[in-house]
């Protein structure tokens, strides 16, 4: 699914929301508030699943501590047999050891089966949580690039390419069921980007992306009105012999970001 762009390369917006085009060519309007609501629901589901994981681990530990190598049913049978024996006829040590070994093996088999079942369930839950969190991250961060005035007005990059190039600097952070607790946070060299305007506070998305691009070695090639970027560089893309790469080839886009900004390489977003 790709962002829908107009003839000038700007993101098409409907009712204040970015418009995407799916693989079948159908327009889809992304509703960010709705995504945030689903984020809260997914987070609650994740919390419930983590609680279930904790319960399974507690049950497993309780069972192990309670019987400590012995099967409860087998232990009761053994006590009943001993109680009914003539006190003058003691079981020799070999028979006692045999009974203990059989009970220990029974418990170990059951413990092993429970552990395997627990590991499978935990792995499945973690996989579902990771998949949902990845989808939420992709939608939220991509939308910020799509609606960013700085990306649209100050750079020559289409939002998709800007997100592909600089999106790894951002993380979705927060917890709980209140969507107000979630935000997109910018990082530089593993550290949160602090605001230059509000001392001691975390920079919002617009300020963070400006700081990130300001440190980009080839920033003059992607900022409008500087270097070879802007409409002049874009015009070169209409000349003969200009290479075109498909919009789906993210690796090629990342490797040629400067040439794309200069207009030396075109990106075909329909491919």
Structure characterization notes:
The model is unreliable at 226-240 (pLDDT under 50). The chain has two domains: 61-134, no CATH class; 148-268, no CATH class. Helix 1 (32-67) packs antiparallel against helix 3. The strands form three sheets. Strands 1, 2, 3 and 4 form a four-stranded antiparallel beta sheet that branches. Strands 5-6-7 form a three-stranded antiparallel beta sheet. The chain has helices at 32-67, 72-84, 93-147, 149-154, 159-166, 205-214, 219-222, 230-235, 250-255, 257-262; strands spanning 2-3, 13-14, 17-21, 27-29, 170-173, 183-188, 191-192, 243-246, 265-268. By secondary structure, the chain is an alpha+beta fold. It has ten helices and nine strands. The radius of gyration is 31 Å and the shape is elongated. Helix content is 55%, strand content 12%. It starts with a strand and ends with a strand. Strand 6 (183-188) and strand 7 form a beta hairpin.
């Amino acid at each position: 699914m790709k962002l829908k762009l107009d003839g000038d390369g700007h993101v098409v917006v409907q009712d204040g929301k970015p418009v995407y085009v799916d693989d079948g060519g159908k327009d889809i309007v992304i509703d960010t508030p709705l995504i945030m609501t689903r984020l809260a629901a997914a987070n609650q589901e994740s919390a419930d699943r983590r609680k279930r994981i904790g319960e399974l681990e507690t049950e497993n530990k309780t069972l192990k501590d309670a019987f400590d190598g012995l099967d409860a049913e087998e232990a009761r049978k053994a006590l009943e047999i001993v109680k009914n024996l003539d006190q003058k006829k003691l079981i020799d040590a070999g028979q006692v050891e045999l009974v203990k070994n059989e009970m220990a093996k029974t418990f170990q088999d059951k413990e092993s089966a429970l552990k395997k079942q627990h590991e499978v369930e935990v792995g499945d839950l973690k996989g579902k949580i990771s998949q949902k969190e990845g989808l939420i991250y992709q939608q939220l961060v991509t939308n910020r690039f799509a609606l960013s005035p700085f990306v649209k007005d100050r750079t020559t990059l289409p939002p998709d390419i800007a997100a592909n190039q600089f999106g790894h600097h951002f993380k979705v952070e927060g917890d709980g069921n209140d969507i107000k607790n979630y935000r997109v946070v910018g990082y530089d060299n593993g550290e949160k980007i602090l605001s230059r305007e509000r001392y001691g506070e975390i920079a919002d998305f617009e300020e963070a992306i400006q700081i990130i691009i300001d440190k980009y070695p080839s920033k003059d090639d992607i900022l409008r009105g500087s270097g070879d970027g802007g409409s002049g560089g874009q015009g070169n893309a209409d000349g003969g012999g200009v290479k075109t790469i498909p919009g789906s080839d993210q690796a090629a886009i990342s490797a040629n970001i400067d040439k794309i900004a200069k207009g030396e390489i075109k990106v075909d977003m329909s491919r």
